[in-house]
Amino acid sequence: SQDFDIRGRVHMDAFIGLNNADDFQNGFNNRRARLGVNGQVIENWDGRIEVDFADGGVSPNDFRLRRRFSDGSRLWIGQYKVPQGLNELTSSNNITFIERATNSNMIADSRRMGLAYERFGRALGFKSMIFGRALGQRGDITGDMPLGGAFRGVFAPEIGSGRLHIGGSVVYESLMDQTIIGFSDRPEARDSGGGKSLIGLQINTPDLEGSFKSGLELALMHGPLSLEAEYLMVNVLMDEGDSPLFHGWHVQSNYVLTGESRAYSSGGFGTITPQNGRALEIAARFSHMNLNDSGYMGGKQSNLTLALNCYLASNLRFMANVIFVDISTRGNGTGDRTPVIGVLRSQFHF
Amino acid sequence: SQDFDIRGRVHMDAFIGLNNADDFQNGFNNRRARLGVNGQVIENWDGRIEVDFADGGVSPNDFRLRRRFSDGSRLWIGQYKVPQGLNELTSSNNITFIERATNSNMIADSRRMGLAYERFGRALGFKSMIFGRALGQRGDITGDMPLGGAFRGVFAPEIGSGRLHIGGSVVYESLMDQTIIGFSDRPEARDSGGGKSLIGLQINTPDLEGSFKSGLELALMHGPLSLEAEYLMVNVLMDEGDSPLFHGWHVQSNYVLTGESRAYSSGGFGTITPQNGRALEIAARFSHMNLNDSGYMGGKQSNLTLALNCYLASNLRFMANVIFVDISTRGNGTGDRTPVIGVLRSQFHF
Amino acid sequence: SQDFDIRGRVHMDAFIGLNNADDFQNGFNNRRARLGVNGQVIENWDGRIEVDFADGGVSPNDFRLRRRFSDGSRLWIGQYKVPQGLNELTSSNNITFIERATNSNMIADSRRMGLAYERFGRALGFKSMIFGRALGQRGDITGDMPLGGAFRGVFAPEIGSGRLHIGGSVVYESLMDQTIIGFSDRPEARDSGGGKSLIGLQINTPDLEGSFKSGLELALMHGPLSLEAEYLMVNVLMDEGDSPLFHGWHVQSNYVLTGESRAYSSGGFGTITPQNGRALEIAARFSHMNLNDSGYMGGKQSNLTLALNCYLASNLRFMANVIFVDISTRGNGTGDRTPVIGVLRSQFHF
């Protein structure tokens, strides 16, 4: 019984519209408040349940069972993240900016139920998954559940005292009996109302067949410096008519002023552990998402984000972001928007 | 404080309609995902809170306080199961088939708030309870809460190296100000949409007074073999007019191929603990429920279920069921149905 | 990780209308069922998450991070109680009566998100807070979140073997873009339906600016005897027109028949720890709330409550209350009410 440990995280934000921010509600927001357990069921089998109670709601996170084989590979059963996207697969405890990049939010799937198999060696690794619907989507599904397959491969050799990361992923999903697919994103910030999307579209037609997504990841770490870039695209597949293709990318650079390095393992980033009581990190990111194609006009979003992070421990940090947003070419007749947003976060986990 | 332990369970299913299964949604389903704590408050007093987050919903399970007396008897305060029905009272971690038998689902009450007193000796035991509404039913109750009383007695002598179990129960409930009572059940399987009932009825009249339920239980265990049979009936009590009586039964047989026995204690079944790394169990069940009486035509359901269970530990198992369903004589004008259903489960608890 | 402990509480009630109680639903009620964790994040920083699943619902309680400085003062970040009101700030595990006094329920704020700073010395202490909306209020807020400030000071010298407590608090809140404010309360008891308010009013006008609340607290402890009195008022601030002022007060006296004393620390009451297996306490409270002013007629409520509490441990007690309620001068045309109510509680926490 008690090889299980409690786990949890609290991410508390304050949103401040700095300029052209009439679309948003200033104030506090509880971004994440998770409680769960994690532990060994029997030798080589571990399990996890984690629920997010952010702002008094309920959303299920990892509900999973996992087997480790003698060669280090692992079989996953239950709900967890679809293997696509370096930014998506980095834990919310460890992402550099307060929100993930818009291309990641918009295209990479989050958690789904299914079966996965992964194997990560010294420099090469992969994870593949067969997945269905997400937990909590029961009421939204018509007829049979969507069914998809995903594959992500990573090549991450050490280079001197640094490391290179190259990743690629493909995801195909049949939507089965569903006739709706949608994409939208907030400007990489959630306001006190929980977030407002400025770009987005919904495709609603019986011609809808599924989607094909692919991604490319590149990262370079050397001491306190790291660089990260990611490209993601989604091709909405139709039985008849045009199959629109939407895509986005982001580039970012982090520098830890106090000299520490970001942790890295199994194809993803970890956090920073301060060596002298406190670590300071600065970072900048440019992200872009284009939701316009084949007559669909969801809009374009480009964000420049500047970040200052203060780590008191690997599990306790304070964050400040300023986000310069540029929204254009939305098909709904509303004009362009250029809000400037500030967000503060205090965050701990255990 | 820390005489309390965390507890939880995850039951993950995959539903596959094998034949005549157009009524159902193929796909994954999260049947249970519970988190809770259990422990000693002070000497002789223990408490429990457990919440089910299955598929992202919230439903309360045991919320209780319990006192153990020096003679081994116990007083229960809070919410827990009404003492009726061998199948209902067997934990969902330990039931042989993926779902309980239809007579049990349809007639036996699940958890209610109230007071109970139990005493189980070597071969004789009983539990009695005064109960009201269930947790979470607040909004469904009109006027005063329903009030009921239950009594279950068990005679379970050891016979050689085996055991006999004979049980009987009666439950009376006054519905007080309520004017609606309903009965329905799924075909002993939940699809990806959370489950669809093929038989059912609702009685809605101010003449409604309450219900009287009784049950008979019979089980026999001998080494790897166990037999189990249960009869349950409910008499809906009316101030005026006919008082319909609905009833159902099931019989089942389990055989553990690897030789282990099912655990048994305090009037109910436990699980199987593999002696050599892995236990394999086969089982068959026939169940029947008749919801037709006195002009009410809820329908009849007969299910034959074949099961194969693989236990890697007492708290980790994989299950496969095939269910041959026969639905007939429904009064709503819809015809008969004979779906064949497959369900797979992976399950752990701690 | 595992400097975190689980915590929780279960408060189970039975409501019985004794006289003139047609407004209420007799039966059981689950008043609180909380699960959470509390612990040290790193040295001098502690965190807490706690969620209430009472009756199957979900409501967030403390979600917070706290820093202790070397002088004993503390900085709070997240959601927790606004510092106003002795009765409100006494934990629900430790309040003498089954519900708090009506003036406390009606006027003192409960939990809000914000920043607070507190310092409590031997006899003098204070806590101040800047606060916004509560967790879970996302959907109820129009435009920018309300913003408030609170200050509470306490003077609590030891006098011989006893203690005096004098407290005062002020809270100002700007409602920003909100145009509604409401006040209502149950008769210091929750029925099986979760509670029914007999007095209340709602003010809905764009003239609404905010509110100013102030409170005075007085308590005296000497051995098994304690006296407690509290006055609270709220002035609803309007840009134009009358700014109504509502107010209420309560006085109460506790006597522990078995001789123990109520615990006290940091400006609030703790519980009673039985010295010989069981402590018995009797108490009486008179409370009054006046919701009539400036043409607003929410009604008046006066309650006399008699209590008998039995403590088996500091974290396990049974409570019985009889409440004589007097409701009058409601502006909605309904007449006066004088229900007499009985409530029983069993309660444990860990």
Describe the protein's topology.
3 copies of one chain form a homotrimer.
Chain A: E1 4-19, E2 27-42, E3 45-52, E4 59-68, E5 74-81, H1 86-89, H2 102-107, E6 111-120, E7 124-131, E8 147-155, E9 158-159, E10 162-174, E11 180-185, E12 199-204, E13 208-222, E14 225-238, E15 245-256, E16 264-265, E17 268-269, E18 279-293, E19 296-313, E20 316-328, E21 340-349
Antiparallel strand pairs in A: 1-2, 1-21, 2-3, 3-4, 4-5, 5-6, 6-7, 7-8, 8-10, 9-10, 10-13, 11-12, 13-14, 14-15, 15-18, 16-17, 18-19, 19-20, 20-21
Number of helices of chain A: 2
The helix content of chain A is under 10%
Structural classification of chain A: mainly beta
CATH class of chain A: Mainly Beta
Q: Biggest interface, which chains?
A: A-B, 37 and 30 residues
**In whole angstroms, how far apart are the ends of chain A?**
20 Å
Strand order of the largest sheet of chain A: 1-2-3-4-5-6-7-8-10-13-14-15-18-19-20-21
Main sheet of chain A, how many strands, which sense, barrel?
16 strands, antiparallel, barrel
Radius of gyration of chain A: 20 Å
Low-confidence stretches of chain A: none
CATH architecture of chain A: Beta Barrel
How many structural units, i.e. domains of chain A?
1
State which percent range the strand residues of chain A make up: over 45%
Order of H and E elements of chain A: EEEEEHHEEEEEEEEEEEEEEEE
What's the mean pLDDT score of chain A? 96
Report the principal-axis shape of chain A: globular
